[in-house]
Amino acid sequence: MNDKDDFVIREFENAYSTLEISDYGAHVLSWTPQGQWPVVWRPQAISLQAGAAIRGGIPIVAPWFSAGYRDGKSANISPKHGTARISRWQYCDYRQELSHSSVCYEYECVDADVARTPLHMQYNITFGEALTVALKIRNKGRAQTRCECALHSYIRVSDISNTVISGLAGASYWNAISGEVNGIQKGDLMLAGATDRIYESVNPIDIRDEGYGRVLHITAEGSRQTVIWNPWEEGARAIPDLDACDWKRFVCIEAAACREHAVILDPGEEYVLSQTIAL
Hints:
By secondary structure, this protein is mostly beta strands. Strands 8-9-10-11-23-19-18-14 form an 8-stranded antiparallel β-sheet, with no helix packed on it. It is globular, with a radius of gyration of 18 Å. The chain has 2 helices and 23 strands. It has helices at residues 112-115, 232-237; strands at residues 2-4, 7-13, 17-22, 27-33, 60-61, 69-70, 73-74, 90-96, 100-109, 119-128, 130-139, 145-147, 149-156, 163-166, 172-175, 183-184, 195-199, 205-209, 214-221, 225-230, 250-257, 263-265, 270-278. A hairpin with a 4-residue loop joins strand 3 (17-22) and strand 4 (27-33).
């Protein structure tokens, strides 16, 4: 465990893989199967600053996505992607089983002006031969509430230009860069420029990486959409905690429930969003 100015980073290892997590944001920083390249990407140097999100890893996006979404348009809420990723979570438990290990965090979200009701969030990380992250959100208030969320996973690749993403063929998408609506994915996806798309798909995703000689398999439960993001070279220049070539080394594959597919929770109701990454 490393502690830098109250930013606690915990390191775990079992027979199958290693894991790094920050208590700030309950943020998975990296996951590396034994004998493999890391699967979850993180910068070599992580910037730790209160009120700022950590780059890379798996940020938790909640209780709103981007600037929020209401009545068919942006709600212009800040901070971007909600407060979960820039808040300190309570480390609750670590358990070691024969085939896997698990870590648990909790967070009380009281952004009443946004969520309009207090939310209890529980985050469970299970790692072994695969990595599963699961976010449970419970409405603790007395009124119905609306919540957006995503698991913003940075997947490490050898070179984004030679990476093939399959599983989205035929799905429609909203292009957040161009504003295009109802685009249709034709065949496999190979990124050739800045990409920020929300796909109307919950199909399993495969990432074929010739450079690393591997295929990653990504599945989700509770998800209503899949988000694909990479800033490319020009966009990366505007992100201060990315080095010049970092953008080549990752693609974000996000399990999401956002915009018109936000979750509606009655008092006491729970919702779980999870994502599994495996070789």
